[in-house]
Amino acid sequence: MTNEKIQNIVNGWGEGFEFSEEGSEFLNVVVPKEQLHSVCSQLRSHPDLNFDYLFCVTGMDWGEELGVIYHLESITNRHNIVVKVKTEDRENPTLDSVCDIWRTAEFHEMEIFDFFGIKFNNHPNLKRLFLTPDWDGYPLRKDYVDEANMIVK
Amino acid sequence: MEQIVNNSFKTQEYFVNMGPQHPAAHGVLRLLLTIDGEIIKNVDPDLGYIHRSIEKMCERDSYQQVVHLTDRMDYLSSHINNEAVCLTVENALELEVSDRVKVIRTIISELTRLASHQLWWGVMGMDVGALTTYFYAFRDRELINDIFEETCGARLTMNYNIPGGLMFDIHPNFVKRTKEFIAHFKTKLPEYDRLLTGNIIFQKRTKGVGVLTKEDAISFGVSGPVARGSGFANDVRKYHPYSAYDRVDFNEALFTEGDSFARYRVRIMEMWESMSIIEQLIDNIPDGDYNTPTKAVIKLPKGEFYQRVETARGELGVYINSTGTKNPYRVKFRSPGFSNLSVLNHIAKGAKIADLVATMASFDFVIPDIDR
């Protein structure tokens, strides 16, 4: 299915979606965080879209905003979409978990919680995955400072 | 009296640490097992023993330096990891590398895959109690490492790729020695089958053990030989060809049983296919430059770039977010081992501890690839 058709279908599900294909090989869509879970479950269940393979989940710190990037593929149709979600709350960032839709998200969301401090609602086991439980701060955020272990140029 | 009998037969759940330094855990992976007798109730992986935060390090590095960090992830697929970063940078720069580079990269990628599968085969046998396989595998793997050493000076962490091509041209002996190796290994691979595949103890340990369904494989984002043992066709070389994979003819190894034995057979079949790919290319390495010079300081245009490659363990994704400077703004490595590990708890529940060892062996984990 072409990106244009995918865009038309997704646009029918709500308002506030921002589409872009500039500077990326995939169709990108920025989804308001309140609608993340409903959009994702429809991407998974819509018979023509059928995005069943979540192959990459990336935590992002855009400077002002924190967020997550989901790379999706449909195994049957071999088309892709990239879903982005952002939150401006840096003190207590919270997003909805998608691990009930794609089970692989459970691990990836744990990694993002560990490195970016984003909390995920309805996640069954959110905890530090790589770092020790008493680690201070979230290392992959841009404002993270560790004078002992980081060389800042 | 009745109370005493009941009490003495009452079972209790308890925790057992498997790893981080367990002989059957391939590296520093700690699994916290909840067990009831011999039955596993829950597997909780505790990661981070070899976490180096490669993604954070990449943010302060130039693009040439990023390449060198990647072979410390999955060290058995180091060439393929390097290639992934180079392809991402080349795509972003719209830099077309010569056919010679594409073909050489593909041949060495397949040699890397062969070496990785050989090591896995040796260790798989060892994990289920067949020590001899290890020596057979290392005898043959040594020959590939010798080719690598002659070509680029390193046996494991190769760093042969750079953005724009290769660091230097292949050694004059490369073609001859690769052909010699293929001729040698074609006589040795049937030996692997005779030694282990048909062994009744091995089959009892792996058949029907650690069964993963196709639906679960897709939902858990599993890739590589593990996914293909469950009938999930996702070979990146087939569906998103890169380098010279679009000009070779090969079959995707696919089995539908989903158990440890199916994953074993996928890798054995992949070794045959890798040899076939190398044979198709080795006599026709095109002439041309081995390197397209880039600027000393590479600046990628503003944007997001994603590249997928098939390592020996599955799909490696490289995501680079560039703001137009000489350093990446964000680099994410979607490593195959991390996603494959996420399914372990799901399929190990209800199995015995010894079955978990066989399942893990068939998953072929490389821990630095999971931890990054």
Describe the structure in your own words.
The complex is a heterodimer of chains A (153) and B (372). With 153 residues, chain A is of the alpha/beta class. Chain A has a domain at 3-105: NADH:ubiquinone oxidoreductase Nqo5 subunit (Beta Polymerase, domain 2), CATH 3.30.460. In chain A, 20% of the residues lie in helices and 25% in strands. Chain A contains three helices and seven strands. Chain A has helices at residues 3-11, 36-45, 105-116; strands at residues 18-20, 28-31, 53-61, 66-73, 80-87, 94-96, 119-121. In chain A, the strands form two sheets. Chain A has a five-stranded mixed β-sheet with strand order 1-2-5-4-3. Chain B has a single domain, classed as Cytochrome-c3 Hydrogenase, chain B. The model of chain B has no long low-confidence stretch (mean pLDDT 87). Chain B is 50% helix and 12% strand. Chain B has 16 helices and eight strands. Chain B is α+β, with helices and mostly antiparallel strands and 372 residues long. In chain B, α5 (99-127) packs antiparallel against α6 (132-152). Chain B has a three-stranded antiparallel β-sheet. A three-stranded antiparallel β-sheet of chain B has the order 6-7-8. Chain B has a two-stranded antiparallel ribbon with strand order 4-5. Chain B has helices at residues 2-9, 54-60, 63-70, 78-93, 99-127, 132-152, 174-197, 200-206, 214-219, 224-228, 236-239, 260-282, 336-341, 344-348, 353-363, 367-371, and strands at 14-18, 30-36, 39-46, 161-162, 165-166, 303-310, 315-322, 330-334. The chains are: A alpha/beta (153), B alpha+beta (372). The interface between A and B is large, with 35 and 39 residues.
From the structure provided, what is the oligomeric state, counting identical versus distinct chains? heterodimer
Strand line-up in the sheet with most strands of chain A = 1-2-5-4-3
Could you name the CATH homologous superfamily of chain B?
A: Cytochrome-c3 Hydrogenase, chain B
In CATH terms, what is the fold-level topology of the domain at 3-105 in chain A? Answer: Beta Polymerase, domain 2
CATH superfamily of the domain at 3-105 in chain A: NADH:ubiquinone oxidoreductase Nqo5 subunit
